[in-house]
Amino acid sequence: MSALAAPPVKLEMVDLKRQYQRLKPEIDAAMAEVLAQTAFINGPQVKAFATELAAYLRCNHVVPCANGTDALQIVLMALGLEPGDEVIVPAFNYVATAEVIGLLKLKPVFCEVHPELFTLDLASAEAALTGRTRAIMPVHLFGQCAPMEEVLAFARQHNLYVVEDNAQAIGAEVLVQGQWQRAGTVGTAGTTSFFPSKNLGCMGDGGAVYLNDDALAERIRMMANHGQRQKYSYELIGCNSRLDTLQAALLRVKLQHLPQFTQTRQAAASRYDELLQGLPGLHTPVRAAHSTHVFHQYTLRAEGGQRAALQAHLQAAGIPTMIYYPSPLHLQGAFAYLGYGPGSFPVAERLSGEVFSLPIHSEITEEEVAYIATQVRAFFA
Questions:
Q1: What is the pLDDT of residues 241-261, one digit of tens each?
Q2: How far apart are alpha carbons 280 and 269 in whole angstroms?
Q3: Domain holding 105: CATH number?
Q4: Phi first, then psi: what are they for 238, rounded to 5°?
Q5: What is the CATH number of the domain that holds 345?
Q6: Fewest CB atoms within 10 Å of the CB: 147, 167, 240, 262?
Q7: d(CA 211, CA 381)
Q8: The whole model's pTM is what?
Q9: Is the peptide bond before 325 cis (omega within 30 degrees of 0)?
Q10: Helix, coil or strand: residue 374
């Protein structure tokens, strides 16, 4: 690789401007249609998007909602869990999963994660089981799935609900009993976020629940719509959480391009892998045998306390980086009441001190990947 003096373009972690410019004719036409119809809430594009996403995911139902956190909350509400019931969730993870558990007066019970795959460690989850455990929430992190065949067997054995947080792995495939299935469709229910930076992102907030159970799907629809099946007939205590029509129209366009988005991300990740091999203390992402990887993030581990210096070196070269996540959830003040402390989950704590992510998105070019990799290697040289 020949070193470049400067990045080929201004580098972004996710380049939404270039994505919009490439898809502008399709997006603008879709938005214009909604503006002409003026059905901004529950317009026909919302139902059409739900139908098209269900076909893509190969599941029976998609229930759009306002955001990914709402999706998690609505599922837990629909399952009828009682205050004090326990839900197992990984400690190395975004806050939303544990947040909604606590919000509903349930008890989040943290577990460890795999040191190389970053997803739920089943042995730790088994150790967290008590007589109050009612559900487990595997998180498909950075674009790769948790070990769902093992999670499902554990859940069946202990009569637990399985709620998949699939905000970061839409389109990934997971191997269950010899069959490849879409991430988020194999448990009791799956949830996702359409936050703009996601692999399938809108121009604001958005989310969805997807599942195969007809009765639960109907209950989730009601939960998202004030607990009503028919207008002004409130059968349940619900909430107001809906995907607006403009966002649905945009997502319909992007859904058609999602396979290509995924291919670009996977190609960039493979090229990063190739160019970043053999650097001391730097570990590229490990692929799980049970899952494909759609690379919502390209996340490495930098051992030996060198992460901060490496990030500073890259920043000086015009390369942004991000740390997901700088502190595990069990050490956050919001969850101090649970009584965990330093050392409770050493893998999660070590990962929080080592991980960092390089730019990866649907518009990234081989030239940009080569420049970034050259600068990483220059740090170690």
A1: 999 999 999 999 999 999 999
A2: 19
A3: 3.40.640.10
A4: -125, -150
A5: 3.90.1150.10
A6: 240
A7: 50
A8: 0.96
A9: yes
A10: helix
